[in-house]
Write a structure and sequence with these properties.
Distance between the termini: 47 Å
Number of strands: 28
Strand content: 25-35%
Shape: globular
Number of helices: 15
Strand order of the largest sheet: 11-10-7-8-9-12-19-17
């Protein structure tokens, strides 16, 4: 979609997207006037912003002072305190050694969080509940911080047990104007990385929202911030909130804020970088509807909620026909998911007039998202958004380990769902068999012209074997499973990876890995549910 594209180097990031010399050369080659850094790589690198400024190129983001001040957790916490922002009790200086870490932890009171001063993305973070874990955490966090950021400085603060992770989007210009654009609930996390986000939060009342927004703006003004940025808070069960950090860039989850406010954050960043004042006042910022974002990753959710998966996307189909769906991605069918970059395939965003509508559309979108060639986390995402606790808004950063203490095992079928799955699979098998009928050189004929009824099959699902009786009437199959009769209707497009079927009036979407060709279609469908099957 770009007018021009410049290769900045081979796949390893150190030789391409983190190579400032290569990027500066691309800027000169294209005579670019400005650079938007996105939300990764050099987006919060003060040296990159400084080099751009020295060449007269505009950095579409805050100045180097704000990047440096907010990028250092120790300095940012001191600035937040001075700006009257609520902060987590803790030690603001640099922890020298393990003995000092233990002394500080005892003064603060267990549990404590040990984390890298220059960290982010969950790197260099450990929770300690006693002296021994503090010593161990100090050692491991120091090593991880040094290898990840080249900076082994650590800080220690009180660990807020069972918190929510709620962040405030801010937008500020170069004329001392700043706005807060409501909040995003980002509590569904694994390994301190976000998985599902929504805006607004079900938890905040207007007074708490305003207090958090005003403190976020106060911090932005304290560092003379200009551009879009995010102030992250931990919120406890009593709605007390504490400053966590400020991200001086566009966030991955910014689309859900755009959905409920109607503002295009990237456009606003470009306007601010050009020097224009903000076009809106605080009273102009609405909460209009509800938005949900799921991060679709190439990873195995059955292993630690998601270990990265690599490979080629042999089949890829986005659910863009679902109303009010937005898919932000940088891949297409045939793309490779490699070891060099974050394994996120896309951001899937749905919007509705209320939360129930946004979640219903997300469920439909996930059902209609076709990804083949790599393992992905759609099964986990779908289970999260339909889980009773999530639907009720009862979430925290401990949601995944609390709900799945033994790890994610997939969806457990109810008795009715098992019968419906058997009925659909049997109907698919029958449709494929009937479709393949040929009479003495005659062309393949339609199902409606075949008078083949009362087929009896024995189906194995998991450890059980089920007798099934099926009859057909054109595009409808009547299937008796375990004493229950179910009517299954579809257009039976066996070439499509997606199949819309209706079971006794209820619509379902099912997927086949390579369409529904051959008698293995039934097995393919059940394998997509992580169940062994045979006829």
């Amino acid at each position: 979609m770009a007018d021009e594209a410049v290769c900045v180097g081979p796949a390893p990031t150190s030789k391409s997207y983190l190579n400032m010399d290569a990027i500066m050369e691309a800027i000169k080659k294209t005579r670019a006037q400005a650079v938007h850094p996105g939300y990764g790589f050099l987006s919060e690198n003060k040296e990159f912003a400084r080099r751009l400024a020295s060449e007269g190129v505009t950095f579409i983001g805050p100045d180097t002072h704000a990047i440096q001040a907010m990028g250092d957790k120790i300095e940012s916490k001191l600035l937040a305190k001075n700006a009257k922002v609520n902060t987590i009790p803790g030690f603001d200086g640099v922890v020298k050694d393990a003995d000092e870490a233990v002394r500080i932890a005892r003064e603060i009171g267990y549990p404590v969080m040990i984390k890298a001063s220059a960290g982010g993305g969950g790197k260099g973070m450990r929770i300690a509940w006693n002296d021994e874990e503090t010593r161990e955490g100090f050692r491991f966090s120091s090593q991880e911080a040094a290898s990840s950021f080249g900076d082994d400085r650590l800080l220690i603060e009180k660990f807020i047990d069972n918190p929510r992770h709620i962040e405030i989007q801010v937008l500020a210009d170069k004329h001392d104007n700043a706005l807060w654009l409501n909040e995003r609930e980002c509590s569904i996390q694994r390994r301190n990385q976000k998985v599902v986000e929504e805006a607004p939060s079900t938890f905040l009342d207007p007074e708490t929202r305003r207090a958090m927004g005003e403190q976020a703006v106060a911090l932005a003004k304290a560092v003379k911030y200009s551009s879009a940025g995010t102030v992250e808070f931990l919120v406890d069960t009593k709605k007390s909130f504490y400053f966590l950090e400020m991200n001086t860039r566009l966030q991955v989850e910014h689309p859900i804020t755009e959905c409920i406010t109607g503002l295009d954050l990237v456009q606003e960043m470009i306007r601010v970088a050009k020097g224009y004042p903000l076009r809106h006042k605080q009273a102009d910022i609405p909460i209009n509807g509800w938005a949900v974002e799921c991060r679709v990753y190439a990873e195995d959710p059955y292993k630690s909620f998601g270990l990265p998966s690599i490979g080629r996307l042999s089949q890829y189909q986005e659910p863009l026909h679902v109303p009010n769906v937005r898919v932000d991605s940088g891949i297409q069918e045939g793309s490779d998911i490699s070891i060099y970059y974050d394994p996120m395939i896309s951001k899937l965003i749905t919007y509705g007039s209320d939360r129930a509508e946004a979640l219903q559309r997300m469920e439909e979108a996930l059902d209609n998202y076709v990804i083949r060639g790599v393992t992905h986390n759609i099964a986990l995402l779908r289970e999260v958004i339909i889980h009773p606790r999530f639907v009720q808004g009862d979430v925290s950063t401990k949601f995944l380990p609390d709900v799945y203490p033994d790890g994610f095992k997939g969806h457990k079928l109810t008795d009715l769902e098992k019968r419906e799955l058997l009925a659909i699979a049997t109907s698919l098998y029958m449709a494929e068999q009937l479709r393949s009928q040929q009479f003495l050189g005659s062309p393949r004929i339609s199902l409606a012209k075949l008078d083949l009824n009362n087929w009896e099959l024995s189906i194995q699902l998991g450890d059980g074997t089920y007798p099934v009786t099926v009859s057909n009437n054109g595009s409808t199959f009547s299937v008796e499973v375990d004493g229950m009769k179910l009517n299954v209707t579809s257009e039976w497009n066996l070439a499509s990876p997606l199949l819309s079927v209706t079971i006794d009036g209820t619509q379902r979407t099912i997927q086949g890995r390579c369409g529904w060709r051959s008698s293995s279609a039934f097995t393919h469908m059940l394998h997509s549910q992580n169940l062994p099957a045979s006829i």
